[in-house]
Design brief:
By secondary structure, the protein is mostly helical. The protein folds into two domains: 119 residues, no CATH class; 143 residues, no CATH class. The chain has eleven helices and two strands. The chain has a two-stranded antiparallel sheet. A hairpin with a 2-residue loop joins strand 1 and strand 2. The radius of gyration is 28 Å and the shape is flat.
Length: 315
């Protein structure tokens, strides 16, 4: 059956049993996706054009829910903007707020597109290909569910951000969490450096790969130090404005961790063999130069992009 014949057969799906319709759409009759899609426009096991209205109504409800959640997220963002207003001059604040703005724009654009797609289904519900209609209804429903989840996640994160804006103790807790994450990264690097020093690899290539990956991660953790120090300085400035207690008790810990970081850098440098530099040195230098252009507050998505662009080939 050629494509034109298939289209003509599919135009006559109305009134066919679900099994017969599946055979028309997919001659192998083995596609679960085809079965689930056609079931959307079936009534009592029979494909019916009249079933499009019910399926469309269900999809519209899901779309409406997504639209409502997007509106709630927009309201939450507006509230957060107002709260952040007095400290909008702090880069630490705007660096966190701006991504929320971008995410909401994407959600709203996708939501608008959903409305347009629902309208196209309505326009063709009486004469469109039944399988195409069912497939689009299914896709619209899936997209609406994705948008709803994205809007809900955004609203949840905005709630956490609002708490961060309003509660100095919460800001300090997050700072300590960042320091903990930095220390954990150093623990991991310490293990890598120990393995390399013990020559705990069977092949030269394996050791070189382990070394370059650890060296790059060491460069990234240097940015973590800068970011944490910047955050600490900003939180102290912010606390002075509010008349709140400054973050305390972290300076010595940070100093110790910085010294540990420096020592790890020396360990990676000392254990490297000349062939490793010959193989990966240029790429490591490229990453080093690119990361050196980034300043706190660090946009970590940019860091990921730099690593992805300059990551050495290990083949």
């Amino acid at each position: 059956m050629d494509r034109c014949e298939i289209r003509e057969a599919r135009a006559d799906l109305d009134g066919l049993s679900l099994e017969a319709a599946i055979a028309v759409v997919d001659e192998s009759a083995e596609s679960d996706t085809v079965r689930e899609t056609l079931a959307i426009v079936a009534e009592d096991g029979v494909i019916r054009r009249t079933a499009v209205d019910g399926a469309l109504a269900n999809a519209s409800k899901v779309v409406t829910t997504a639209e409502t959640r997007a509106e709630l997220a927009a309201t939450s963002l507006e509230d957060v903007r107002d709260i952040a207003g007095p400290v909008s001059d702090l880069d630490l604040v705007t660096n966190r707020l701006n991504p929320f703005e971008t995410r909401l724009e994407i959600i709203e654009d996708r939501t608008t597109d959903l409305g347009d797609r629902i309208q196209r289904i309505i326009d063709h519900k009486n004469d469109g290909d039944l399988y195409d209609l069912a497939r689009e209804i299914r896709r619209v429903t899936a997209t609406a569910n994705e948008i709803q989840r994205a809007a809900d996640n955004l609203q949840l994160e905005l709630g956490n951000f609002e708490e961060w804006l309003e509660d100095p103790d919460h800001r300090v807790e997050e700072l300590v969490d960042d320091i903990d994450a930095f220390e954990q990264s150093l623990d991991e690097l310490d293990g890598v450096a120990t393995d390399l020093a013990a020559d705990d690899t069977e092949l030269e290539d394996d050791a070189a790969v382990v070394w370059v990956q650890g060296t790059i991660q060491h460069r990234v953790t240097a940015l973590m130090i800068d970011d944490i120090q910047y955050e600490l300085a900003t939180l102290r400035k912010w606390a002075d404005r509010e008349g709140a207690d400054r973050p305390a008790g972290v300076d010595q810990r940070l100093s110790d961790l910085e010294a540990r970081h420096d020592a790890l850098g020396e360990r990676f440098a000392n254990c490297a063999e000349s062939t490793w530099y010959e193989r990966f040195g240029d790429r490591v230098e490229d990453i080093d130069n690119a990361l050196g252009e980034l300043e706190p507050p660090v946009a970590w998505d940019e860091v990921e992009a730099v690593i992805k662009e300059h990551r050495p080939s290990v083949e």
